C-alpha cells in the first residue's frame, strides 16, 4: 500500500489534461473495482449457499457484501472529491454512471436492513442469499454505464484499444489495484475469522451453562 | 481549495477509513480474547471443583 501511494503521489507523471487531481484516479478506480468484486463475491457465496446449502457460505457472503459496502462508501467519497476537483461539482444527478453506482450501493445497504430484520437461522440465510443474488445484476449495468454513457463527463480510461495512459501511469495503476485488492482480502479474512470466532465462543458459552 | 488539497483529502479519507476499520476490528478481537479468557477460567474452575469432589470419593472407595 505504501509503495502504491509513493508511486501514485510522487513517481507517476502528471496528467497533461487534468493536472494533479488525476492522481485521485490511482485510489478511486481500484477501490471502485474492489467494491464491484466484493459485491460479486458476496453474490457468488450466496449462490453457493443456495446450491450446496452449507451454512458457512452465509457468513462469507455477508462479510463480502459488508466489505463491498465499505469500499462503496470510499468510491463515492473519493469520486465526489475528484468530481469537485475536476468538474467543479461534488455530484451530478445527470450522470447515469454515478447514479447507477449509488443505486447499487443503496441496494446493498438495504441488504443489511433485510438481514437484521429477520431472526438468525436458515430462513434469514436463504432470504439474504436471494437478495444478494438479485443485486449482482446491477454490477455489469453500473460497470458498463461508464462505457455506454452519452454524457462523457466521467472519463473512460480503459477502451477496446487498451488503457489510454502512459506505461508508467498504467504500472502505477496496476500496483495500486493490487494493493487495494490485497487490503480488501486481508480485511475480509480478518473480519471472517473474527465473526467465526465470535459464533464459536457463543456456542461454547451456551454449552458450558 | 487547491487541486493538491483535493488529492490529499481523497487519500486522507481512505487512510482514515482504513484506520477506523482496523481499530474496530482490533476492539472486537480484544473483546473475543477477553471472552476466551473468561471461558477458560470457567472450565478451569469446573475442573478444579470436579477434582476436589472426586478425591474424597476415591479415598472412601479405597478404604
In helices, the fraction of residues of chain B equals over 70%
State the separation between the terminal residues of chain B, measured CA to CA: 91 Å
Judging from the principal axes of the Cα atoms, what is the shape of chain B? rod-shaped
Order of helices and strands of chain A: HHHHHHEEH
- The coarse overall form of chain A would be elongated
Structure in a nutshell:
The complex is a heterodimer of chains A (209) and B (63). Chain A is mainly α and 209 residues long.
Please give a structural write-up.
With 209 residues, chain A is mainly alpha-helical. Chain A has one domain (22-156, 168-201). In chain A, 76% of the residues lie in helices and 2% in strands. Chain A contains 7 helices and 2 strands, in the order ααααααββα. Chain A has helices at residues 2-11, 25-52, 56-87, 96-117, 122-135, 138-148, 167-208, and strands spanning 158-159, 162-163. In chain A, strands 1-2 form a two-stranded antiparallel ribbon. The radius of gyration of chain A is 19 Å and the shape is elongated. The mean pLDDT of chain A is 86. Chain B has a domain at 25-63. By secondary structure, chain B is an all-alpha fold. In chain B, 6% of the residues are buried. The interface between A and B is medium-sized, with 30 and 23 residues.
Keywords:
heterodimer, A: 209 residues, mainly alpha, two-stranded antiparallel sheet, 2 strands, 76% helix, B: 63 residues
